[in-house]
Amino acid sequence: MINEQPFAVSFDMDGVVADNISYHFDAWRQFVWQIWLSSE
Amino acid sequence: MTPGGSSFGKYGFHLSDDELTRYVNGRIAREILEYLFRRELSPEEVHRYTEEKEDIYRELYRPYLKPAEGLIPFLQELRRHGVPTAIATSAPYTNVSFTLDGTGTREFFREIVDARHVRRGKPDPEIYLLAASRLNRPPEKCIVIEDALLGVQAGLNASMKVIGITTTHTAEELINTHHIIRHFQDLDIELLYRLLRTEQ
């Protein structure tokens, strides 16, 4: 096992390093709402 | 209309929960914004709208910012075994700093690849291939950890082993991955070696 060539690990960030996707979705909803208000 | 309804009045479309989960999560901001506006945006517009959205996000999440369950001990284990690690995210750099510094995890990642470094968002494999190149490992010696369907596909398109974490999607939705975890306590170095030895 120790003699095997070390591999690498790549992490996505949002939803992996932090469990934060629901906050991103809420932010997109608020962003859309703000754009809608500014377009009226 | 409420924020949960999420429609652009004069643009006349709805940003549904399904669109957020399946289309938005994992893409770079320019692609998402041009999808929302249904037109090509200038770099200035992309920058301005991205900052607006991400300001909202950081304000919402800042009080709750913390590393995912079991992440720090897992990163420590990887470091003990000399496994190089990278962040490969479609997020803008302002969010990368916010998240990595806020969770105390920046020191564990040798490389950071973000939206500034790629032309095409996930599911294109560009971001994972660039991370592998920077870590000096061929794709077959790389493991990707993803929550998003587009990100899972990006890892598969890069010919890497993909571990799905069920923070955003169910295990059934992540069925295309090579292994599924609920949190990082489900992972250890032996499992990663076994995963790399499997053919599929």
Walk me through what this model shows:
- The complex is a heterodimer of chains A (40) and B (200).
- Chain A has 40 residues and is mostly helical.
- Chain A has one helix at 21-39; one strand at residues 8-11.
- Helices cover 48% and strands 10% of the residues of chain A.
- Chain A contains 1 helix and 1 strand; from the N terminus they run βα.
- With 200 residues, chain B is an alpha/beta fold.
- Helices cover 42% and strands 12% of the residues of chain B.
- Chain B has helices at 17-24, 29-37, 43-61, 71-80, 93-103, 126-134, 149-157, 189-197; strands spanning 7-8, 13-14, 85-88, 111-113, 142-146, 161-165, 179-181.
- In chain B, strand 3, helix 5 (93-103) and strand 4 form a beta-alpha-beta unit.
- The longest helix of chain B is centred in the N-terminal third of the chain and has 19 residues, at 43-61.
- Chains A and B meet through strand 1 and helix 1 of A and strand 1, helix 1, helix 3, strand 3 and helix 5 of B.
- Strand 1 (8-11) of chain A pairs parallel with strand 5 (142-146) of chain B.
Short structural description:
The complex is a heterodimer of chains A (40) and B (200). Chain A is 48% helix and 10% strand.
Order of helices and strands of chain B: EEHHHHEHEHEHEEH
Q: What order do the SSEs of chain A take from the amino end to the carboxyl end, as H and E?
A: EH
The mean pLDDT of chain A is 86
List the quaternary state of the chains: heterodimer
Rg of chain A computed from alpha carbons, rounded to a whole number of angstroms: 19 Å
Mean pLDDT of chain B: 91
Termini gap of chain B: 47 Å
Strand content of chain B: 5-15%
Distance between the amino and carboxyl termini of chain A: 64 Å
Shape of chain A: rod-shaped
Helix fraction bin of chain B = 40-55%
Number of strands of chain A: 1
Report Rg of chain B.
Answer: 17 Å
pLDDT < 50 runs, ≥5 residues of chain B: 1-5
Shape of chain B: globular
**Strand order, biggest sheet of chain B?**
5-6-7
Low-confidence parts of chain A: none
The biggest sheet of chain B, with number of strands, parallel, antiparallel or mixed sense and barrel status, is: 3 strands, parallel
Number of strands of chain B: 7
